C-alpha cells in the first residue's frame, strides 16, 4: 500500500460514520500501517552502509538500548512530516467529522419509530414492584448518534494512547524533545491546517 493511501481520508459522509465497522476498520488499518509498526518504520530509515561494516561491532554483544544509533535528523523529520503527522491528521479529521455527525440531529434514523413505540409502551406499563421487583426494568434502544458518540470518544482515547507510545519511540530514535501534541501542532501550523 502506498504512503498516500495510508494517509488518505475516506469520503466523509454520515453513512461512513454510522457504519461503525467501516469506521473502526479504517482507524485500525491506519494505525497498523504506521503506529503499530513504528519500530520497523524507524529501522527502515537507517542507512547502515553509509559508515561501512565495523568487524569489531560483532566482538561484544550489544544488549544496552542506549547503544542504538539515532537516525539522521533530516530523514527523521521527513518521515514525521510526510508519513506520521499526515496519518495522525487524517485520523483526527475523521474522528472530528464523526463527532460532529454524532452531535447533529439524525432525521434518517431507521430505529426512531421503534424507539418511540418502546417509550410509549413503557409509559403505559403498570409497575407493581411488590409483585414483580423486576417490572420497573426498561432498557431503551440507544440511538445510533449516541452509539457513534461513544465510539468516537473511545477511539479518541485509543488514539491518545497510541500516539504517546509511538511518539516515545520516535523521540528516542530521532532525539525530539517536544511532546507529540506540540510536534503535531507545529506541523499543522507549518502546513496551514
Q: How much β-strand is present in the residues?
A: under 5%
Summarize model confidence as the mean pLDDT.
Answer: 80
Total beta strand runs: 0
The ordered H/E elements are HHHHHHHH
Domain count: the total is: 2
Helix content: 55-70%
Strand count, sense and barrel status of the largest sheet are:
none
Distance from first to last alpha carbon: 25 Å
**Model regions low in confidence, pLDDT < 50 over at least 5 residues:** 1-7
Form type: elongated
Rounded to an integer in angstroms, the radius of gyration calculated over CA atoms is 25 Å
Q: Tell me the number of helical segments per DSSP (H or I, 4 or more residues long).
A: 8
Alpha-beta content class: mainly alpha
InterPro entries: MIX23, MIX23_fungal
Protein name: Caffeine-induced death protein Cid2
Organism: Penicillium steckii
Family: Belongs to the MIX23 family.
Amino acid at each position: 500500500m502506498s504512503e498516500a493511501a495510508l494517509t488518505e481520508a475516506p469520503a466523509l459522509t454520515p453513512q461512513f460514520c454510522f457504519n461503525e465497522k467501516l469506521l473502526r476498520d479504517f482507524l485500525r488499518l491506519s494505525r497498523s500501517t504506521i503506529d503499530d509498526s513504528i519500530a520497523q518504520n524507524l529501522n527502515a530509515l537507517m542507512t547502515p552502509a553509509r559508515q561501512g561494516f565495523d568487524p569489531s561491532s560483532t566482538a561484544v554483544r550489544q544488549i544496552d538500548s542506549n547503544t542504538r544509533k539515532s537516525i539522521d535528523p533530516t530523514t527523521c523529520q521527513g518521515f514525521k512530516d510526510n508519513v506520521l503527522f499526515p496519518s495522525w491528521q487524517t485520523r483526527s479529521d475523521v474522528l472530528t467529522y464523526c463527532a460532529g455527525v454524532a452531535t447533529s440531529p439524525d432525521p434518517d434514523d431507521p430505529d426512531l419509530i421503534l424507539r418511540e413505540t418502546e417509550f410509549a409502551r413503557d409509559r403505559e406499563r403498570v409497575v407493581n414492584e411488590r409483585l414483580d421487583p423486576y417490572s420497573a426494568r426498561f432498557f431503551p434502544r440507544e440511538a445510533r448518534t449516541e452509539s457513534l458518540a461513544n465510539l468516537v470518544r473511545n477511539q479518541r482515547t485509543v488514539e491518545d494512547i497510541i500516539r504517546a507510545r509511538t511518539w516515545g519511540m520516535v523521540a528516542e530514535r530521532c532525539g525530539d524533545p517536544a511532546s507529540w501534541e506540540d510536534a503535531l501542532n507545529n506541523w499543522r501550523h507549518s502546513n496551514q491546517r
